[in-house]
Write a structure and sequence with these properties.
About 45% of the residues are buried. This protein has a domain of about 190 residues: FAD/NAD(P)-binding domain. With about 500 residues, the chain is an alpha+beta fold. Helices cover about 25% and strands about 25% of the residues. The strands form 5 sheets. Strands 6-7-5-15-16-17-14-20 form an 8-stranded mixed β-sheet, sandwiched between helices. It binds flavin-adenine dinucleotide (FAD). Flavin-adenine dinucleotide (FAD) binds next to α1, β2, β3, β14 and β20.
Length: about 500
């Protein structure tokens, strides 16, 4: 029994079946908790987390970057490295499964984690301070040989013997900068790559089910409408949109971008923002074999074009198995403030809430002109062979950012019936295999004797906002102040031939 009276039989409710909820459910069930129910308003059993079929959580996606490079933040670096062992084991388990034993949306040939490498390019001619800190921390952990500094003769020599034949030439300079006489500065990280996000969620939901976790999914039965409190204001359960009440000894709130609107008390620590994503669908393989080959994970790395959030703020991925090249822009992340009624007090708050393709009502989304301009600039400069195709699709992907970009995983002060498990801040996916292990630690040792419990504890604004959270509704990131791109904007004026 934990100090808060939680036993292995106690009812645990998890709100949200994204990375934070799934990983928590998985590890709690592995730790012997037997009465876990996960609720989600999205019908993931029907749409298999497919973004083209109605799924719109941050965790539902083609791909997410798997990186260990974390600058000064060595705890995240260690956790990411730790996760790789499980990502590899999951790949092996899926590969050796029979098709009929895998959940819908997964087949034995699927790799949910692809170690294609990550090129962290600097575009101002020098390694950034965060890059130097990353190298120092990887050196400290004995992992320096996994990193290859472009232009460093020793590293380049080592890369050629360490990587597959010809891989270094393609992945260290995928945009042909040397050939064009441009600077080529940066680091190739051979430990990194991407994870297939939606497929990874399907897999972990399957593991949870195998361990006895129940899932209640869908807009009516799975959507949590309000929380139930006892006389001491402690959370003791929740009520769904369909009106059914469920009781809990512990409720884990892992609702991603919807967390502050469900529980407004957390809105001074967490803010919902949107990153912009553009897709370029390659022509069918037989019509453009060279493009399919060039952008394949075998030949093309995950890349940051001058830093995820600096410079152009552009990062991208190799093509998917369906030939989709995804490019993300997070130079500027947007907020969407609306009136939100506190489900318990009835009080109205102005809070940033997700406005996805499917939620609250389906609509044809567009991303901002600012994002499209930044993406087109990089495509023009670095991937001109894609300009003839143009942008073919887009998505606003709703994050939940914390004050300081760190996660928030802690019991609510004065309410040990609720634990907020959120604040992914644009980098949470890679931790799917290990995040829940730390959640179990935090639950079982509320005094936070572990490093992650301290790192992710309930913080205050005074701890130093640095994520734009302090700008609020009047700030420049407000959605309503943006100009949205039209489909005409998706085309490139000067196109090169395929
Ligand atoms: C554009 C973009 C790029 C990213 N890139 C990376 C990357 O490269 N690498 C990386 O590691 N991470 C990346 N991330 C971050 C990562 O995706 C997130 O940290 C992670 O997916 C967050 O998971 P979550 O469970 O907190 O939230 P979500 O995935 O949003 O899940 C929350 C769930 O709660 C459910 N929910 C909400 N309200 C209710 C309710 N009332 N009742 C029931 N259910 C409810 C939702 O339906 C949803 O399924 C990126 C995120 C974005 C947006």
């Amino acid at each position: 029994m934990t100090s808060t009276g939680l036993t292995k039989e106690s009812p645990i409710i998890i709100v949200g079946a994204g990375v934070f909820g799934l990983s928590s459910a998985h590890h709690l069930s592995q730790a012997g908790y037997k009465n876990i129910t996960v609720f989600d308003k999205q019908p993931y059993a029907d749409n298999a987390y497919s973004t083209t079929d109605g799924a719109d959580a941050a965790s539902a996606d083609f791909n997410k970057c798997m990186r260990m490079s974390y600058g000064e933040e060595i705890d995240y670096q260690r956790l990411a490295f730790d996760g790789i062992k499980t990502w590899n084991a999951w790949n092996d388990e899926i590969r050796s499964s029979k098709s009929e034993d895998l959940p819908r949306g997964l087949k034995p040939s699927d790799l949910i984690w692809n170690n294609c490498g990550f090129l962290r390019m600097s575009i101002d001619g020098q390694l950034s301070a965060i890059e130097r800190a990353t190298l120092a921390n990887l050196t400290r952990e004995g992992l320096r040989e996994t990193q290859f500094v472009l232009g460093d003769p020793e590293d380049e020599k080592r890369a050629k013997s360490h990587l597959r034949k010809g891989e270094w030439e393609k992945k260290s300079d995928p945009f042909g900068r040397k050939r064009q006489g441009k600077d080529l500065v940066g680091v190739f990280d051979s430990t990194a790559g991407f994870v297939e996000a939606s497929k990874a969620c399907i897999w972990v939901m399957h593991l949870c089910r195998r361990n006895g976790v129940r899932f209640v999914l869908g807009e009516k039965d799975g959507q949590v409408a309000t929380f139930i409190k006892d006389a001491n204001d402690k959370t003791v359960g929740m009520r769904t949109k369909s009106g059914t009440e469920y009781h809990s000894k512990l409720l884990i709130l892992a609702a991603g971008g919807w967390t502050p609107s469900l529980y407004p008390a957390v809105s001074s620590l967490l803010e919902t923002t949107a990153g912009s994503v553009a897709y370029i669908q390659l022509p069918p393989k037989d019509q453009a074999p060279d493009l399919w080959d060039k952008f394949s994970p075998e030949n093309f790395p995950v890349y940051a074009y001058g830093g995820w959030s600096k410079g152009h703020g552009i990062g991208g991925f190799p093509r998917t198995e369906d030939g989709i090249v995804k490019i993300g822009y997070r130079g500027f992340k947007y907020t969407n403030y609306e009136d939100v009624k506190d489900p318990i007090t009835g009080q109205i708050h102005r809070i940033s809430v997700p406005r996805t393709k499917y939620w609250p009502k389906p609509y044809d989304p567009s991303i901002t002109k600012q994002a499209v301009a930044a993406i087109k600039e990089v495509v023009n400069e670095a991937m001109p062979e894609l300009t003839a195709i143009g942008i073919t699709g887009c998505r606003n992907c709703w994050y939940i950012d914390s004050l300081d970009n760190g996660f928030l995983i802690d019991r609510v002060p004065d309410d040990n019936g609720m634990l907020v498990c959120s604040g992914g801040s644009g980098h949470g996916f890679k931790f799917l295999p290990v995040l829940g292990r730390e959640v179990v630690e935090i639950i079982e040792k509320p005094e936070a004797k572990n490093a992650y419990g301290k790192l992710w504890r309930w913080r205050t604004k005074e701890a130093g906002p640095k994520n734009g959270l302090e700008q609020g509704e009047t700030g420049p990131r407000n959605w309503k102040k943006q100009v949205m791109a039209t489909k005409e904007d998706w085309k490139f004026r000067e196109t090169s031939r395929l």
